[in-house]
Batch of 2 targets.
Target 1
Amino acid sequence: MTRAPGMTPDQRRETIVRAALPLVAELGSAVTTAKIARAAGIGEATIFRVFPDKDAVLAACIAAAMDPSQVLRELESIPLDQPLADRLTEAVDALDAHLGRMGAVIGALRASGTPRRPALARSESRDAAQAATRRAVLELFEPDQEQLRLSAEQATDTFLGVFFSRGADRGRIADVIDVFLHGALAR
């Protein structure tokens, strides 16, 4: 029987975090390293070859949940040749999924008694992530700049303001986008 090729420490860390994320979202800080190891298909001692302790695993899970890479890929993959309303609907779906991932992990950790961590405070990386997200949404407006009453930049900022102010009542996103694009007054 041949043994699988070894992983680099970064690959091992990524595998552990990927396996831990759904467990942390479900169990918060009550998750055990034994459960994480089982989910990752590794021995528990392997976790401690790349992480000093469970808190470091939890911190890596927070960082992964907040990482904007996936939502940026999803936003950048939205076809620019489809109607603006469809592009914005896809953008809302991607942004909602990202916020859901973050909320699940952070909420479960807080609910299980993990104190607020400095990593959750405003930081340069958070500001950079927000700027990158804004740029990706701006690109969705740019093909329609000629039809917009506002600049693409203003439309982006207004759209993101509406998106982030929706609160828990998500309503029908098609209605929100229709009012955003065409106003509340009858045509």
Note: The mean pLDDT is 88.
Target 2
Amino acid sequence: MKHHGGCHCGAIAITYESDVTPEETEVRACQCSFCRKHASRAVSDPAGKVTLTLHDEGAVQRYRFGLGTADYYLCGRCGVYVAAVMPDGERSYAVAIINAFADSARFTRTLILSDYSAEDEAGRRERRRERWTPAEIIVA
């Protein structure tokens, strides 16, 4: 299954691929202040794929905070938070923010509230390698 979406103005597009149906997909709500302020609902599938396409790279804002292990992709023009991406050598891993999907209403499972504040950098990177989705970033 492919789920398409992106920011409101079209500067950032996202495709999330997973064999798990939206209705069966675990939906997480990180409890950090950034994610709470965006009311983000995140999904990932280690067997899937996230593709971010940057149609207007000048409008893309990458934000890092806390341990600085991931780039949070937001549109600087329309403000939509689309994904978080952790670079890891030659690979990247991502969580997709379903609020940015055209079919976001299909992700109906009860939110799992997630608190990662006790993690150190090594633990956070390891969890993401295991649970986040392999990602590709394309500059169009």
Note: The first strand starts at residue 2 and ends at 6.
